[in-house]
Amino acid sequence: MPNALSRRKVIALCAAAGGAALVPIGSHPRAGSEPLVEWTGVSLGSVSTIRLAHPDRRAGKALLRRAVAEARRLEAIFSLYREDTALSELNRTGVLIGPPSELVRLLHLCDEMWRTTGGAFDASVQPIWRCYADHFSVSNANAEGPPPHKLAEAIELTGWPDVRFSHDRIAFARRGMALTLNGIAQGYITDRVIEILRAEGITSSLVDMGEIRTMGNHPDGRAWKTAIDTDASHNITLDLVDKAVATTSADGFRFDTNGRCNHLFNPATGRCARPTTSRTVVAHAAAVADALSTALTFMDDDAARRALARVPGSRLVLDSSRG
């Protein structure tokens, strides 16, 4: 299985060839405004940044350390790439007694987004990933992907309604089922960092833990600016105030050289998105934008409009299939 850095959306701050990347645009605060303090590192396999305005740089740095510690704590619950996480244990055993409250909370959000998107967002597709990973792990694998019967077997192990969860127990209905939170966890962690900063009185911040969310204006008084690298002759720039933005791109991970088999799976068919597929969504929260950008990959225009209408303030700002 590929390492986490190549797994999903390493496009947060790094341009991905043939896809779209979100790039926060920095600038110096205007004279008299609160200085920006910043942290840059890696979270859930993506290059990550936290920027906040604070009158006391030392106190601001301490707050950054607290926010990063919370992100690390959540990563130790949600990550697929560490054997010691709650998610990995659930996937190994099929049941988790006394699960972390954060995992239960995120599963409730997964359920909400599954309903909002009519099933297009489905965190139970991990068996499909395993099917593709197993197929391409052998030399001279058929570039068309797994044979139909193998894919059908994998699909039989999916189905969000067969994930049962409560505050004291999470269990799968069938042996071999597994979850991936890669389509929502980065956004959730971004939202959690924003919550911590807001609780400490911060009013101006940009947080990018794989997906981007802003709080208030930039210290210079304008909106925070985020560029979408579109692989076109020019970038699209978004002005964000108290909004989140997320991009899902088929180019985030390829099983084959041309990208026909990638990490974005239609939950109903197990087939992959087109290699050039990329969706960018703005919403009130990063986890919601994250899930919507994933789900819209396999939704037709009418279904996409209905899903977006169910989430006030959300909008599709880039759809690579339509230019």
Largest beta-sheet characterization:
7 strands, antiparallel
- Give me the secondary-structure category: alpha+beta
Strand order of the largest sheet: 2-3-7-8-11-12-13
Structural domain count = 1
What share of residues are in beta strands? 15-25%
Structure description:
It comes from Hyphomicrobium nitrativorans NL23. Mg(2+) binds at residues 183, 290, 294. It is a single chain. A 7-stranded antiparallel beta sheet has the order 2-3-7-8-11-12-13. The protein has a 3-stranded antiparallel beta sheet with strand order 1-9-10, with no helix packed on it. Strands 4-6-5 form a 3-stranded antiparallel beta sheet, with helices on one face. The longest helix has 22 residues, at 57-78. Helix content is 31%, strand content 21%. Helix 1 packs antiparallel against helix 6 (185-199) and helix 6 runs antiparallel to helix 7 (286-295). With 323 residues, it is α+β, with helices and mostly antiparallel strands.
Give the helices and strands, then pairings.
Layout: E1 21-25, E2 36-43, E3 46-53, H1 57-78, H2 86-93, E4 95-97, H3 101-116, H4 126-136, H5 148-156, E5 163-166, E6 169-172, H6 185-199, E7 205-208, E8 212-215, E9 224-229, E10 236-240, E11 244-249, E12 278-283, H7 286-295, H8 301-309, E13 315-319
Antiparallel strand pairs: 1-9, 2-3, 3-7, 4-6, 5-6, 7-8, 8-11, 9-10, 11-12, 12-13
